[in-house]
């Protein structure tokens, strides 16, 4: 089912590691039109596209508070406990990354410092579609709360019954998020970017979505609305040596493949036995899975790659820069230290990707499509920005004055030099 | 010269604080064409546009090592000392922000941690044009080096003599940056995004530029190349009460205005005396400045705004979110603590913006156009990304298994649940 590539030449790696082609230019015109319409016509446009694309006529765009608080009565207590446990772990991990910065006196009398502040207004997009992704709400809402954002809104499409799934509402209530708008698609992104009569504008938009959502996020980003990161289909690399367990590896590959037909899964291994055993295990396990048709499609553009050495395998992983990397190898921690491009890494035979997707504590909003070369996953700092400060006293300004005047003059900016001179009467 | 607005109604603030309109849609088609041509035809296209737009025929795109090392013999020793002093201060301030993260055991047997890593390949764009912006090379090159980026390249347009200004070459040599390509404009951005025969591709592009450069950065960003931040014209707000010195305030406004005809400067004050005195001082000081014509244009869309109280003034500053904020007030530090949207803040009567532009130690690559609401200035972390890790042992996986299985099942992802079950034989 998966293509097997044995000992490929180094020169063929680039082609081998291409992601399945995805191109949104076909919908760019349509998305541009939706975004412009929402900017111009606000709620009226929102309702129009929600009816057109989602097939639902929404009366209240804002989910009523009573519906949110009632969600806890609807969902099973086992699910509530699971969400709470996941929320605890995610909070524990994310709250570690708060920083305070020292005042640095770069020269006597020249004090510089930095302050981290929450982005005031943020919007979280939670996809609807085939599943209620309450886990994504945990992954975005918890760092937003920890950062201290004062206005956190959520947009998520309603189902055919015009309702938002109670698990999403329960999760929002658990996190103390009150403003949930039951809209989705490009129109939701435009609403958060520009604001409408009902939906407040935000400064940064987070969250995954389909091609319409992704294209809309790119469009509003050009106009200066910040977004979390560019998006692409989800992916995993399993890096395995002979010590890996083929059953587990197959289950991990299948779990990633069920995200969507455009997901890509790669097995990179130094063991011919693993190549064979994993193929057999996939063939067995796939039959019992609900999403087997989607998985089969995804496996069509997935690969099993056999390499000579672990060093080559590490090099290949770093070149591919996977969103998720599972290292099922002897010396997993030594290997992990050599990984320089990846979103989130799972070490050893008992760390399946699904624990990170839900509950280990790390964030599951991660850079896909090789973006891990330059982007981080979502974290508390994604919801913050820094301001720098400086304060000079007169001796400090005197000490630094020659440097500033000389440089400004060399750059041809004499008013810059003058702002120093005038203060020192030179 | 500057428009004076006395005690505006709160409802008029939004209109009052609009930035001078700037729109790049007129050049979008042309830039798209340049970028596509460079992607397709590499160095040939680069040479074509460099000849067409910059009017220079470049033989070697790469500046020869001998030319870089010779720069120190060309520029005056006073300028060398100034650049060294600035580099020291910038290094001192920026090196404070390196973090190590603890391992967090979110549940017994579930270990999560995070690692900060340099982005391997980064490109720095240094504009040419009216001035050799070696200060910008300091501001981008120092954090890139501190982050530990292994491949740092610089693109900067050559002058009419086909040479890069020696002050830029000297600064590069000082920072240990060897690969400088003498090209500019949209074609330089495309070269760094896709690579050509001569110019290596990078993962993230930094640096300011004209409308062509900005538009090209936006275009390649859509294809997944990271960029530092969106760009707009430079700007300053001076927040002044009656304790401010009108001479200094005028000099600061003028120094910002000399950046370009599209720069915006605002004086927000609670003192009618300051309104009057600053106008008089501007009228006097402007006459002796080399760039007075450009400054006059810039002042046409700049404003002096008189407000009743400092609290209102702080609110207005936060709504405008200036790139630079100079606080010339009694209680400047108390006011600074209430600022939530700004790029860099200058406190007191002896901290002109020009010290931060060159040498105080803070970065001068800052968010313009209100982007300070969501973006930080360039810092060491701008050149890094983080990878998260998790490692579970069998008891850890057992402990977390119910949570993961319950959540995956509720999201309709049974292969995710299965990756846990198969490891525990449940």
Task: Please describe what this structure looks like.
Chain A is of the alpha/beta class and 426 residues long. Helix content of chain A is 46%, strand content 16%. The first copy, chain A, is built from 16 helices and 14 strands. In chain A, the strands form 3 sheets. The first copy, chain A, has a 6-stranded parallel β-sheet, with helices on both faces. A 5-stranded parallel β-sheet of chain A has the order 6-5-4-7-8, sandwiched between helices. In chain A, α9 links the parallel β9 and β10 (264-269). The longest helix of chain A has 30 residues, at 25-54. The termini of chain A are far apart. The mean pLDDT of chain A is 94. At the A-B interface, α4, β2, β3, α8 and α9 of A face α4, β2, β3, α8 and α9 of B.
Multimeric status of the protein: homodimer
Structural class of chain A: alpha/beta
Order of the strands making up the biggest sheet of chain A: 1-11-10-9-12-13
Question: Approximately how much helix is present in the residues of chain A?
Answer: 40-55%
Secondary-structure map with pairings?
The structure is a homodimer of 426-residue chains.
Chain A: E1 3-6, H1 13-16, H2 25-54, H3 65-74, H4 77-94, E2 104-107, E3 110-118, E4 121-125, H5 134-147, E5 151-155, H6 166-175, E6 179-181, H7 185-194, E7 204-206, H8 211-222, E8 226-227, E9 235-240, H9 246-257, E10 264-269, H10 272-285, H11 292-300, E11 303-306, H12 310-320, E12 324-328, H13 332-338, E13 344-347, H14 353-358, E14 384-392, H15 394-410, H16 414-424
Parallel strand pairs in A: 1-11, 4-5, 4-7, 5-6, 7-8, 9-10, 9-12, 10-11, 12-13
Antiparallel strand pairs in A: 2-3, 3-14
